[in-house]
Design brief:
Two copies of one chain form a homodimer. By secondary structure, the first copy, chain A, is an alpha+beta fold. Chain A has two domains: about 90 residues, Glutaredoxin (3-Layer(aba) Sandwich), CATH 3.40.30; about 110 residues, Glutathione S-transferase Yfyf (Class Pi), Chain A, domain 2 (Up-down Bundle). The first copy, chain A, is built from nine helices and four strands, in the order E-H-E-H-E-E-H-H-H-H-H-H-H. Chain A has a four-stranded mixed sheet with strand order 2-1-3-4. In chain A, strand 3 and strand 4 form a beta hairpin. In chain A, helix 1 packs parallel to helix 3 and helix 6 packs across helix 8. In chain A, about 45% of the residues are buried. At the A-B interface, strand 4, helix 3, helix 4 and helix 6 of A face strand 4, helix 3, helix 4 and helix 6 of B.
């Protein structure tokens, strides 16, 4: 069984939990509070020298980092991970866009405005840039979604999961989503799937609820 | 035949030229000078709404963006793109690391210090952060390369090409590489391949030289 090192309110960690929920794959969850330095202990750095969550133990002692690489691993061979060469490239294109253009801005705004006490003051100089670049990313997504229901392969894939994680909390960190109706419709389509789970879902609280 | 929209001194564009050189695949190259706004003309934005190079026309009218996604496409089915599920995930892990942790810092330092006149003054507030984060990325790579010859699948792959592009110019933008002997040895291994080409190589000047 996989062991996932994850933080409840991390969008990057949520991607992996959401993918595993879609796949119906059981996993053990270890909560890591990065705000308390738990991703920078010697023990954790030994598992992942980058000091980040999520981190997946794919087999005993074998670790995989980087949320979007983990999605390709766990969804490999399923319809969530496109196998066709051009569909795979399209999904990858949007997943690299997510890590390069969306997460560093909307993800950063979410982290500092919602998770870190006093974050707004600490990051005052960076916020304008995050808002501007975040809106630019949302504009690129809006344009694509005006003509497509999903991001790649004409169906729901891990590219949608990767982009959903921070886009669905953009309104919580001051992005005005009114200008992005196609993005909002896509967020609703993703959330309407019966296998969808919320950001704070874990297999632990799911088991407790049953 | 592929058409590649590329900038000669862009590390992200170099990745694609280097991969195509390794594969021996012919392509047409269109030079785009982003410093002159050529990636933000209406015509170019119609091809790539993100306004970035590299951009690959994979077939007439069908475009693929994001350098690392392009590498997976052009190298798909060759030994440069690992096919095994865990090897593929390892290669992807390092390629997402490159776009999220290395390129935004060493790539940014390279761009503003080497390509933009007066860039140092314009980005004075950001440089310390780029240096610190760039060193952190180099440290993670050093640790991996102390025990491995390449980044994934025990062989030279597109993960190495992705990481090589900006790492090989880090010394040109003030990173002191003395603390990273394993990284330097890896850079030399990559450059020693008979199919290796330099950053300013293009199939056009190659043809002219013959």
């Amino acid at each position: 069984m996989y062991t996932l090192y994850s933080m409840r309110r991390s969008g990057n960690s949520y991607k992996v939990r959401l993918t595993l929920a879609h796949l119906g794959v059981a996993f053990r969850l270890v909560e890591i509070d990065i705000l308390r330095g738990e991703s920078h202990t010697p023990d954790f750095l030994n598992k992942n020298p980058s000091g980040q969550v999520p981190l997946l133990e794919v087999m005993p002692g074998r670790y995989l980092a980087e949320s979007n690489a983990i999605l390709w691993y766990v969804a490999g061979g399923t319809p969530l991970a496109p196998d066709d060469r051009i569909d795979r490239a399209d999904a990858l294109q949007w997943m690299f866009f997510e890590q390069h253009t969306l997460e560093p801005h909307i993800g950063a705004a979410y982290f500092w405005l919602n998770l870190v006490k006093g974050g707004r003051e600490l990051q005052r100089h960076a916020l304008d840039d995050w808002m501007e670049e975040g809106y630019r990313a949302l504009g690129v997504m809006e344009k694509h979604l005006q003509r497509n229901r999903f991001f790649a392969a004409d169906r729901f894939t891990i590219a949608d999961i990767a982009l959903y994680a921070y886009t669905h909390v953009a309104h919580e960190c001051e992005y005005d989503m009114n200008a992005f109706p196609a993005v909002r419709a896509w967020l609703a389509r993703v959330a309407a799937d019966p296998r969808h789970v919320l950001m704070d879902w874990s297999p632990n609280n799911s088991a407790a609820a049953e």
